[in-house]
Write a sequence for this structure.
């Protein structure tokens, strides 16, 4: 099963990249219940995850799509390019993505859904950035 662009899980940090705001702003939206309902809650209830599509639809309908992202593929490319910069600066970004993808797969497994295989880069599915 290949991961579709719109199905990639995103957390607060990835949402901040997508919408060009600070992570603290996204967290405040969550506290104020401005964010859409999460698509999954993992990590013992401590981590909320959304599908990219959920966030893009919400951001577009509320005027928060500051980067004018047109589709899920563009959104995922933005996240991955930001991660590449972060990884060179700090390995913790890679570890966070690894944990997020594991949590997402565990959630899918618990819900009786098919889990995604990770490629050699520990990405879910077989998505590869066009820039590579």
């Amino acid at each position: 099963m290949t991961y579709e662009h719109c199905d990639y899980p995103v957390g607060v940090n990835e949402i901040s990249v997508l919408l060009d705001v600070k992570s603290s702003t996204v967290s405040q939206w969550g506290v104020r219940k401005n964010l859409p309902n999460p698509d999954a809650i993992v990590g013992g209830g401590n981590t909320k995850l959304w599908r990219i599509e959920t966030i893009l639809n919400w951001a577009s309908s509320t005027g928060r799509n500051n980067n004018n992202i047109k589709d899920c593929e563009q959104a995922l490319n933005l996240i991955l390019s930001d991660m590449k910069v972060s990884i060179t600066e700090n390995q913790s970004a890679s570890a966070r993505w690894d944990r997020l993808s594991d949590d997402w797969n565990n959630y899918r497994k618990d819900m009786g859904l098919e889990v995604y295989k990770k490629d050699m880069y520990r990405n879910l599915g077989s998505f590869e950035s066009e820039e590579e």
About this structure: The chain is about 50% helix and 10% strand.
